[in-house]
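Sample 3 of the quickstart, ligand KG4:
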Amino acid sequence: MQPPADTAPPRGPGRTLTVLGIETSCDETAAAVVTRDHDGRGQIRSNVVRSQWDAHEAFGGVVPEIAARAHVACLDEIIRTAMRDAGVTWGDLDGIAATAGPGLVGGLIVGLTTAKAICLARNLPLVAINHLEAHALTVGLTDGLQPPYLLLLVSGGHTQLIDVRNVGHYVRLGTTIDDALGEAFDKTAKLLDLGFPGGPAVEAAAIDGDPRRFTLPRPMAGRAEPNFSFAGLKTAVRTAATEIVPLSQKDVADLAAAFQEAAAAAVIDRVQKAMAIVAGERAAPDRGHCLVVAGGVAANRHLRGALEGLTGRRGWRLALPPIALCTDNAAMVAWTGAEKLVRGETSPLTFAARARWPLDATAAPALGAGRLGAKA
Ligand code: KG4
Ligand code: ZN
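Result:
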């Protein structure tokens, strides 16, 4: 059920597009309005994100049923706020982009169905968005950076290295074969009794720690394929902690620092491999080769510093979107919608939510590649 083409608003490369984005794939309810001008420059007109963390905290993780109900409770209001903050009316929109996967299917259905209803009522085109693609294209909005580039996606549900060759063309070079990096931070925080979400807590605890007191493994180091593995590292922290219980504050700080250092070293080793693959496959564009980092773990200062060092040594550019746009948000969804609309790509109103939706459909299935119910 698509709106009749003759009454749909005109769109195309010659004019500015205004898109409402909706994000409900996990535990953030978000809506944003973004414009894309005829030169391909993006502007965030509004960006509203409401975390549901309070509703899940008592359970120590995201509960899918609670997440879906919480999206239902506040999505209308969040969309209204995003429209008001942007100062736009329904008539100003050129389309609506909603995350359709991968993620928790109950939440995805809430956002996608809301988008479909508005499209039907306002005669607007729908663009169903892959959440991972939205992360991958965010630098087009924040830095005006267009593909090709290498993407390191490090979040609570995914750890992947993706060669972004063009909008719509993604080649997965590597993925985690067990835990995602954010998940490893969260589990380590739980083990050290630092609370949830664990990444920021581990980073804070590590500030006073000595990373050299404990020797932890660098999983997958040296392997030819740039895959990741963090389960063994997490177990090594547990083993080291078990040997010295009860843990003093100093023990916790040293373990947190050792974990953070080992995790970053493992990431650097894998990214280095992926950079060599990309550099071997294509000549650098005029602006040089570029590494883009997205996902919540990109907030980690130790990892950021290590990535700055690596790219600096190799003469690569490093693009790190602002933290608020590395974590889940709807501006990236609206922007990806605009990038699709300008290419004439829309989705039928029959488009179904997808719990699993890998960016590279040809890559062998692996846990970190768009797994069922994973937070992206
Ligand atoms: O991208 P994100 O906000 O949500 C999704 O997973 O989609 O990422 C959340 C993950 C969590 O695992 C959290 O612990 C981790 O990012 N994280 C961090 C830091 N801030 C957030 N990990 C390490 N250091 C941080 N400063
Ligand atoms: Zn995400």
